[in-house]
């Protein structure tokens, strides 16, 4: 199972997520990095473990207040061994194709909360660098009508994202994650939100997920190098 560290980008720095309440996110303070600069934080995460994938949420782009495209290009250049999965607030197929053309080494996460309809998934069917994030706030699905019930349109990688558990220590939303796994006939499912530590990794693995997105547990030391090495050894 993949463990994928997360960076949330806002106003040029990495911020600390809390319960999905983006307006309250402040620059991260972590023992892993001397500053909240994206390059410092990614280097700090990689000092814990040689992660092959890093997920980046461009919060300014998601909220249509700007973007971190230059920072992301710099990160891809600085860390050539890392595949960056990026939620860039893309809303339609034209915007998606343009982003993929500019960010040739990154993978695009289509956040359902930003999609107006299903046409973008139909247009990008078969694109290897596209993922879908199924975004939930509590029991409410944030996305176009019919998307959650149309797994045949989902790309090969899907994220089950419970926003209210992002940056929390309440544990993954296992009911929701199991439901997504049950629907995903041909898609690998990645869980996001609420991971507390190694015991949650075992539960998620048993539920059939292919990986998990994590930030707080790494910065707080609840998930260590030894934990991650053990996960690789047991795979």
Explained architecture:
An eight-stranded parallel β-barrel has the order 1-4-5-6-7-9-10-11, surrounded by five helices. The protein has helices at 38-48, 59-62, 69-78, 93-102, 119-123, 174-183, 198-206, 216-219, 225-234, and strands spanning 2-10, 13-16, 26-27, 53-58, 83-87, 107-111, 130-137, 140-142, 157-162, 188-192, 211-214. 31% of the residues lie in helices and 24% in strands. The longest helix has 11 residues, at 38-48. A hairpin with a 2-residue loop joins β1 (2-10) and β2. The mean pLDDT is 93. The chain has one domain (2-234): Alpha-Beta Barrel (TIM Barrel), CATH 3.20.20. With 235 residues, it is α/β, with parallel strands linked by helices.
List the helices and strands and how they pair.
Blueprint: E1 2-10, E2 13-16, E3 26-27, H1 38-48, E4 53-58, H2 59-62, H3 69-78, E5 83-87, H4 93-102, E6 107-111, H5 119-123, E7 130-137, E8 140-142, E9 157-162, H6 174-183, E10 188-192, H7 198-206, E11 211-214, H8 216-219, H9 225-234
Parallel strand pairs: 1-4, 1-11, 4-5, 5-6, 6-7, 7-9, 9-10, 10-11
Antiparallel strand pairs: 1-2, 2-3, 7-8
Q: What proportion strand? A: 15-25%
Give helix and strand order, one letter per element, not per position. Answer: EEEHEHHEHEHEEEHEHEHH
Chain-averaged pLDDT: 93
Q: What about the largest sheet?
A: 8 strands, parallel, barrel
Would you tell me the structural class of the helices and strands? alpha/beta
Give the low-confidence spans: none
Helix content: 25-40%
Fill in the CATH topology: TIM Barrel
